[in-house]
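Why does residue order matter? Because the sequence determines the fold. Keep that principle in mind as you read this record.
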Amino acid sequence: MKKRFVACVMTVVVVAGLFAGCGKKKEAESSVSGSETIKIGVGVPMTGGSAELGGRVFNGAELAVEEINEAGGVKGKKIELVSMDDKADPKEAANVAKLFVADKDIIACIAGYNSSCTLSGAPIYNKEGLVHIAVGSSSPKVSTAGDYTFRVWNSDVYRATFDLNVIIDAGYKKIGIIYQNDDFGQGALEVAKERLKEEDIEPLVAEGYLLGETIDFNTVITKMVDTGCEAVFAIADETELAAFAKQCVQQGYTPFISATGTYNPSVISLGGDAVEGMVGDSYFDPDNVPEKAKEFFDKYNDKYSANGERTEDPTSPCAYAAIYMLKAAIEDGAETREDIQKYLANLKDFETVVGSLSFDENGDVKIPLVAVQIKDGAFAAYK
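Structure:
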């Protein structure tokens, strides 16, 4: 994948006065009509352990903005993305939130990929009344983060249960778990334990790892071998997931693996033969992609694919959909940050590239999932 998004990140000049008033509501309220362009913030990891996925969020948002602007913008105004790197670091995400809320021209944000970053920024966005839409944050805690927090992504109450059910439905009882040791992984772990408890199953191993730091999984793999784990539920994204699978192969350990992060082309490119047979979830049946989604990925790959290689992922279309939700809000008459919040809180049956979406009382959507499996180095429907 091209690293084009790095070059696209706008240079943001930070002056001391930008922080003035961050602790209280500003007197001059942001409005669409009061600015030359419609500014939307994008605060996601461009560097750090989730840079590849953060890049997909940015690219999806950028593609939507370019389409909208080429068609004349929104009410005659162009959309302008103001992009900042939260480095997959909760402290940095809080700083990004402070900068976004202080810029009176920013009407809304796509902010928060990692759950811990979303939860770190949420109190700031909610206190100052700036909508942030998270793409990628699956922690159940996001559901109660505040009225100005929305997400175009499934909660792990649904997604982690779905991925774990693949293992349960296959009849496995001896199960091990690896999880990213942060809000994302811990939230999904609790969901998994509750689901297993319903089946009178206790995980034989449950080990956490640190995003961007853990590279050696041999100790936990040895534990899984010694305890007889026949299946592994991996609450992990591409880098660690691929590393875990490769080290399993090196030890001659071949468990059935279902993972939350399987449906990412980087899992295949990083894991190679080691990830063959791995199962996960997607919004689309890879063998029968809906026309809207196919058109999106055609445009996405024309713009961002390296070496003409086609890739499909769940992240970029969600960011793309989020931008179109904001466009719809402004077209409907939303002028202020508060107007944006009210529109989204009542948004129902909004057609997107990932299906018809509605926000519930917690600002969550539920995107129907299908099980997928890596077969012959590509994604296919799991049967």
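Residues 51-70 form the longest helix (20 residues).
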